[in-house]
Amino acid sequence: MEDQKPLVPAQKLLDSAESVVIILPGDPSPDLVSAGLSLHLSLKSIGKNSQIGCGTEVHVAKEILGSQEILDSIGSRNLIISFDYHEDDLEKVDYDTHSDGKFYLLVKPKAGSPVPDISHVKYSYSGANADLVIVLGINSLEELGKIYADEKSFLDTAKILSLNISARPASFTPNLFHYPASSYSELVTRLLEKTEIKPSSDAAQNLLSSVYIETKSLTSPQMTADTFSAIACLMRHGASLPTELRPLSARLSQPAFFEAPASLSAEEDGIPIPPEENQPVPKDWTKPKIFRASDL
């Protein structure tokens, strides 16, 4: 019987969480990107407030849908306004609110100092907050890189669910969904199926494409019956097989061992042409053949 213990906390955490943050490790593989992004899209499709982040630049194939939603930060509580300016040139910073409901921030330079250049103003957020954090493929929170550095106080106390295809337990959280699998995309498919979360069509397509790539078009020895179960689940939710993949029979077919050039006729190739069927048979062919020892 399948061990249900790892599933129980995962299902309870996902059921109770209204807001979820998914964090990828630095320099994630295409499989990790596809798995994390697909989980994010699926949680959004069922009404969860989900966001996904990665502390490094993410390189994804054009076939991965929704990649523009991966941000380099997970904070959303505090608005940060930054621009190039020297503190010695600053006289004061103040704010005001008007009856029209707008908020005004005043940056006043000292007399004779340059005015801040609005073309260099940048906006960002900090201060993460969520009911649940989901991390993929890490053994320590430090592997989250910049995001952990920016949001250490939040992540050190957050409720975290760890997803990993390694059986190695994580020390930073007791909430684990660790199963051997051919890929993280297969693992996320298993999680969605077991928790009865219907993947969006984009998520299902991302996951199926990644499973095929990671299993080398279903030829990997790491495949199990669970891999095929994941493929069936994803196809039931709108995913289709990648069009660029040729059927296995076509990849294994070999050309004929001997093959005469098509441009040569039988006569040019030195092959005798048999006589026509309606030609008369030579008379000596119809007589009985007698062999004697002296003929040998």
Give the topology, please.
Blueprint: H1 7-16, E1 19-24, H2 30-45, E2 49-54, E3 70-71, E4 78-82, E5 90-97, E6 103-109, E7 122-126, E8 132-136, H3 146-150, H4 152-155, E9 160-164, E10 175-178, H5 184-194, H6 201-214, H7 225-236, H8 248-252
Parallel strand pairs: 1-2, 1-8, 2-3, 8-9, 9-10
Antiparallel strand pairs: 4-7, 5-6
Helix pairs in contact: 2-5, 2-6, 5-6, 5-7, 6-7
What value does the Rg take, in angstroms?
34 Å
Give the neighbour order of strands across the main sheet.
3-2-1-8-9-10
Low-confidence sequence ranges: 246-251
Strand proportion, as a percent range, falls in 15-25%
- Treating each run of at least 4 consecutive H or I residues as one helix, how many helices? 8
Chain-averaged pLDDT: 82
CATH superfamily of the largest domain: inorganic pyrophosphatase (n-terminal core)
Q: Which structural class is indicated by helix and strand composition?
A: alpha/beta
Can you tell me the overall shape?
elongated
Largest sheet: 6 strands, parallel
CATH topology of the largest domain: inorganic pyrophosphatase (n-terminal core)
Give the end-to-end Cα distance, rounded to a whole number of Å.
Answer: 79 Å
Percent helix among the residues?
A: 25-40%
Total tally of structural domains: 2
